[in-house]
Design goal:
Strand content of chain A: 25-35%
Oligomer: homodimer
Order of helices and strands of chain A: HEHHEEEHEEEHEEHHEEEEHEEHEEHEEH
Shape of chain A: globular
Number of strands of chain A: 19
CATH topology of one domain in chain A: Carbamate kinase
Structural class of chain A: alpha+beta
Largest sheet of chain A: 4 strands, mixed
CATH superfamily of one domain in chain A: Acetylglutamate kinase-like
CATH architecture of one domain in chain A: 3-Layer(aba) Sandwich
Strand order of the largest sheet of chain A: 8-10-11-9
Radius of gyration of chain A: 24 Å
Number of helices of chain A: 11
Chain lengths: 400, 400
């Protein structure tokens, strides 16, 4: 859709809620592409733009949308007023380009809502104690919406996205994946950190902290309900596995035959940490000859850096060799039901074994199990697990 | 120049002043074309956009430029900080899209100037008592600059434009027009209202009221001095005529043979006023038969409206006919020297008569004389007057 049509579409969505008699506050983000255009212009002028000025610049995108959205509502005969983050009372810390929300003062918004006006708030932005504009970083508009819902004590917070909800698996890989009706914050967080990028983890964490129930739904088809994200309720444990998550951005590095002495691990992970390489899964094996092997995964973008670092470090440690593989994926099962159901790991390993999929790493937590497998088994692995745990839309439990 | 190059150019101009040891506060306007784009988007969404929201939208243009300009200065190693109108302390009345500046609180700017930082202020915008963004209307950025210079008690206020100063006549018509070194506020105001559109009259009025000396100069070639605009000093009267102004946007309407009774004039001008048609020059003749004729000029854009109105009104008044002519121009002489020099009008009329240019209307004030002539005499009229009053760059006084 064109820019103007998108804004008219947003106005129509709002109209439906207004006509139902609701008081409506809306958080909007920039027109698609605007933020990237602004960044391109900034870096053409200064390769390393000042973060304070970057925030002044980026806030422009949302400021444009609030005004246009208010105008679109007026055209439908609906009272509406726009507010910047500062006007909406979104106070943040001073950390430009990645500020954290410190407090919400919703008085002004409430005044206008009570007058019968729709309030349109610029997402992604706030203001620090000095009165300078700040931005909230990636996923900032979702965060603004959840903070606002919390501040207003709203009955419902709806997040309109380009997907119509959270699915039991990526529907592009598993065609009969089904939409999850309700998911707990904790599960949603795991899904996010495991590669299901519907929302940034920080927005979910914020909602969890302030107990804001929200719905992820489609901005294209407003007739279909989305996925409700909320506190865990006991009935959620009835479902053993909520979903199968997939992370395609992993790479694996193995350092083997390290003489087993204290501090080896520290030396490896300090080297990676000081180069800002984030390590995800870690496995250590003690071999019979008194040597040790470390295997760990990093983001694929960091693979080359990490590999080069490890070659240096391994020499210092007297390790025999460094091996790497960036053709791997991480497949995870997520579900609060795992807490009360035994045998999930077994079923998982059996299912993969039956398909001759070799597991090279395993990591578990209370509500998830992750395995690393060869990239070529990506689709087969996800589909077989999805079916085995009864997640297919026409599915029933097998193998349990 | 491209957008990015323009901003880099502005940064270079500022650098020159910083290197001279000056404290510099800069007012910038939107990138060229941005304001029109925003208006187009707004009217595509709502044919009559709300003025409050229009201000939120339009303020975006300058907010982008302040950030980019600060970044461009940083790239040159110069300390700089951006401020919106609100942050800069520009308080206005609540009249959206055409707000008037009520007060300036320059504390924040001064703090940063004293720290050695260049302060970049968004022009064209301010904030009302409710904390809502307002815009100042046409020429608003010049107004912001002059208000800021006043608030800061600046030594100098330079207005960078696409012309390099104020000329004795439009150089496209009079090739040997010369740049005016110094001009009084009053003369500048007359020039502006008579069609020389270097600056909006309101900015000059503001400068006059607060006695802000400013210079109109070129943003393309910063080596050449511009025109200084300031309070009248007695030496200014030595020059009889400061310049020849031309207004091409006039149209003339004559209502003749109106029975001469009280209230006729009121009826005519009330009809025009209620349709927002602004009348410029007015001439009334009482004919021998006890009837009266009115001739007046309006903006050419209003000609059709005014003509249609007058046809109706003239019937009500029992007038014989309405005639109109939109192929006319107004040529004016401006100069504070006219106060102390006699015979200017005579010289003007003689000069035009010698060229066989017929004058159809005349209007005078203390420091200007305007005549309406046929459009085809535009160039000849302006050039002959420019020469007659010794304004040619190699000129000397003739005919006096």
């Amino acid at each position: 859709m064109g820019d103007v049509d998108r804004i008219k579409n947003v106005a129509n969505i709002i109209r439906e809620d207004v006509e139902k008699g609701h008081q409506v506050a809306v958080v909007v983000s920039a027109r698609s592409g605007v933020t990237n255009e602004l960044i391109a212009r900034a870096t053409a002028i200064n390769e390393q733009p000042d973060e304070r000025e970057m925030d002044v610049l980026l806030a422009v995108g949302e400021q444009e949308t609030i005004a246009l959205t208010a105008m679109a509502l007026h055209a439908l005969g609906i009272e509406a007023i726009s507010m910047t983050g500062a006007q909406a009372g979104i106070k943040t810390d001073p950390a430009h380009t990645r500020a954290r929300i410190k407090s919400m003062n919703c008085e002004k918004i409430v005044t206008h809502l009570e007058k019968g006006s729709v309030v349109i708030v610029a997402g992604f932005q706030g203001v620090n104690d000095e009165g300078t504009t700040t931005t909230l970083g990636r996923g900032g508009s979702d965060l603004s919406a959840i903070a606002l819902a919390s501040g207003l004590n709203a009955d419902l917070c709806q997040i309109y996205t380009d997907v119509d909800g959270v699915y039991t698996a990526d529907p592009r890989i598993v065609p009969n994946a089904s939409k999850i009706q309700e998911i707990s914050y904790e599960e949603m967080l795991e899904m996010a950190s495991l590669g299901t990028k519907v929302m940034q983890a920080r927005s979910v964490e914020f909602a969890n902290k302030y107990n804001v129930v929200f719905e992820v739904r489609s901005s294209f088809d407003t007739s279909i309900p989305g996925t409700i994200v909320k506190q865990e309720v006991s009935s959620m444990e009835d479902v053993v596995v909520r979903g199968v998550a997939l992370d395609r951005n992993q790479a694996k590095i193995m350092v083997s035959n390290i003489p087993d002495k204290p501090g080896s691990a520290a030396q490896i992970f300090e080297a990676l940490g000081s180069s800002n390489v984030v390590v995800d899964m870690i496995v250590q094996n003690i071999a019979e000859d008194g040597c040790t092997d470390f295997t760990f995964t990093v983001h694929r973008n960091d693979y080359a850096t990490a590999y080069a670092l490890l070659e240096t470090v391994s020499k210092e440690l007297g390790a025999k060799k460094v091996k790497g593989d960036d053709a791997i994926v991480k497949i995870s099962l997520v579900g609060v039901g795992m807490r009360s159901h035994a045998g999930i790991a077994n079923t998982m390993f059996d299912t993969l074994a039956k398909e001759n999929i070799n597991i090279s790493m395993i990591s578990t937590s209370e509500i998830k199990i992750s395995v690393v497998v060869d990239e070529k088994y990506l689709e087969l692995g996800v589909r077989s697990l999805h079916e085995a745990f009864g997640l297919d839309s026409d599915g029933h439990l097998k193998n349990l």
